[in-house]
Design goal:
The structure is a homodimer.
Chain A: H1 2-11, E1 16-17, H2 18-32, H3 38-50, E2 54-59, E3 65-69, H4 71-82, E4 90-92, H5 93-100, H6 106-137, H7 146-173
Antiparallel strand pairs in A: 1-3, 2-3
Chain A binds a DNA duplex (28 and 28 nucleotides) through helix 2 and helix 3.
Amino acid sequence: MSLRHALLGLLMEGPHTGYDLRGRFEQSLSRYAWHASHSHIYPELRKMTEDGLIEIVDEGARGSKTYGLTEHGAREFRDWMLTPIKDSPVRSEQTLRLFMLSALEVDEMRPLLDDVVTQAEAGIAELDAAIEHIDAATTSGDKPPFARFAAEFGLRYRQLQRDWALWAAGELDRYPTSDSDNPSA
Amino acid sequence: MSLRHALLGLLMEGPHTGYDLRGRFEQSLSRYAWHASHSHIYPELRKMTEDGLIEIVDEGARGSKTYGLTEHGAREFRDWMLTPIKDSPVRSEQTLRLFMLSALEVDEMRPLLDDVVTQAEAGIAELDAAIEHIDAATTSGDKPPFARFAAEFGLRYRQLQRDWALWAAGELDRYPTSDSDNPSA
DNA sequence: AAGCCCATGTAACTGGTTACATGATTCT
DNA sequence: AGAATCATGTAACCAGTTACATGGGCTT
């Protein structure tokens, strides 16, 4: 039921349209925390309305519907957040591949590790820009800038990917490659 | 089709029983890369056999079946590994919660961050022990110790969780809590 | 008026979970 | 004999994807 709780969480800060919520997923949630597509979000919003967790507070142009939390929904969200979970199952195809590296020949691993570094660095650049933007818009107020928290997590994760791949590539260098005893250059 | 490829990857190092494969998931894959339970693994192995990706190479005690890769399966695995993916969707309930922190009151966040630190530190201790074990068993041979690669990734991920939570808690300290203007101590 | 983005939805399918079910072997 | 672990499976259900489908409103 994580999609449901993710939607409740987004609505905690105020009413949003379905389209809006979908955008939130695309921008940040889908990348690091929880992926969802519109064809899953819209039906879920309908079910949540039926279950009394949210309600339509406005209907705008182009058939847009603005959803807001009901009291029940807000309570459900807080209950979920405050209930500890042991170890939640993770699914990341990228990480799975890293774990499966050993099934390749040593020579084939290097380009894959290089790809990880390249992609991670692109992500780092993107997040650096985002963080700069957030920091510039932040006036020292009474609430912390939470978008900054998520961005920081994303940044550190990308750095981890990069650093791990560089470390792994370094480890590979300590072992002979298939043509190291027959250097052609 | 990631479960399928995860199973192929595990079988790349040699034949295994279903029970054995399931154990591999429980130990490491499920925690950091890809979760799967036995009730999903067994039917998938049957389908993969039907599709000619793997085959039963032995049947042992207690009805156990040992599966091995076919040539087709090995090719399929390599194709999958060597085909680049752009950004694969991620799903982690734990990370989702971190992203949803802002929907709580500042005072409620701190215990959650403390939990993250505690759990991450338990994971670090576990992985430290695992790595020591791997290193002790490693004789400088011709192939790198790949279990070490996965363990290193897990370790760094746990450290990231801990460090981020500590950083976030520090950020919270810079903002007034609901009773900071009325200190009871 | 053409093209783009806004905005929502459905249908058929595949992926994955939870609970149920069974029996063999080993250890104490 | 009883408990734990090995070992595999099925059935009903829920979660999520892919492809299809539609139309309103805004900009040039």
